[in-house]
Specification:
The chain is of the alpha+beta class. It is 21% helix and 18% strand. It has a 5-stranded mixed beta sheet with strand order 2-1-5-3-4, sandwiched between helices. It has a 3-stranded antiparallel beta sheet with strand order 6-7-10.
């Protein structure tokens, strides 16, 4: 509390974003201020229902007086800040990050990242030629086989950009299971279960919250994976219906993605006061009963026998 008895977190802070004054409550981030100002800012590792971990560096902005670019997703606003979100330095930094990601990973199922790559003119071919005689002829790429160990979701680590969203969703931000973490260093860093055991032997409770926050399809619902394999995954033809989970009385909201009158995946709104986008295994995966065949009573002849 301040001297006037007011909550200091509600004290307004005024800053400049691309030459425009913006006033937001103290404690908000630069990203929130940019959003209020109508400035679209790229993010990969940030989500509204997760704690910022500052690993992707795609949201960086230029802060007057700062030697380095600062992450907009986690840097709190300060009165009098002067922020540039589209300077040459910012554009160059974002383009480089996108080029590195596109060089090492399969981003074919990451539409938002691809849109930003197009926006910033990212060109992964710049790294395809060897700058030195002793250098490899092509950049290294993540080349891990798809891991399929159950009927709920798959793991395709060649698409993983190490955004840490799954780690956060499995940890303090949602499930508190801590079944997954980042193992290894540098280019060899990978998302793994504890001690790299097989998924069924790990602490995973199959809530699917890690799948829900993955931005690249590295973690993917098995239903989506199977439909994609036969060329039948059609997001534009899917309807999304919001309903309440039928398993218990908590009141979790579900978003049912339906294609050809079949549920193909279940999500939850990130802004819902009960779930914050997270679900349990029953809410996320326990929808098959909806498609159970209709009961048909036995015929008279069959009943007599």
């Amino acid at each position: 509390m301040n001297a006037a008895g007011e909550n200091s977190a509600e004290t307004p802070v005024t800053l400049s974003i691309d030459g425009r004054e913006v006033t937001v409550p103290a404690g908000e981030t630069i990203l929130a201020a940019c959003t209020q100002a109508g400035v679209e800012t790229p993010t990969i590792c940030w989500a509204p229902n997760l704690t910022p971990v500052n690993v992707c560096r795609i949201c960086v902005v230029e802060l007057e007086g700062s030697r380095t670019l600062v992450p907009a997703c986690s840097r709190p606003v300060e009165d009098g800040m002067a922020i540039s979100t589209d300077s040459d330095r910012v554009r160059h930094s974002r383009r480089m990050v996108l080029e590195f990601l596109g060089t090492a990973n399969d981003l074919s199922q990451a539409p938002e990242i691809n849109d930003w790559s197009l926006h910033y003119g990212a060109d992964t071919s710049r790294y395809s030629s060897a700058p030195r005689d002793d250098a490899p002829s092509a950049p290294a790429r993540v080349d891990d086989p798809v891991r399929i160990q159950d009927d709920l979701y798959i793991r395709a680590y060649d698409r993983c950009v190490l955004c840490y969203k799954c780690v956060e969703a499995c940890g303090d931000d949602a499930q508190h299971t801590f079944a997954i973490a980042v193992a290894g260093r540098g280019f060899d860093a990978r998302i793994r279960t504890e001690y790299d055991v097989e998924l069924p032997e790990s602490a995973c409770v199959y809530c699917g919250n890690c799948v829900a926050v993955c931005p690249t399809g590295a973690l993917q619902f098995r239903s989506e994976f199977d439909l994609r394999a036969v060329g039948e995954w059609r997001p534009d033809d899917q309807s999304v219906t919001r309903t309440v989970c039928s398993y218990c009385g908590v009141g979790c909201n579900l978003e049912l993605h339906v294609q050809d009158k079949q549920i193909v995946k279940v999500m939850s709104p990130a802004d819902h006061s009960v779930t914050s986008g997270h679900l349990c295994i029953k809410g996320r995966f326990g929808w098959q009963y909806v498609h159970a065949p209709a009961f048909e009573p036995p015929t008279t002849d069959a009943a007599e026998h």
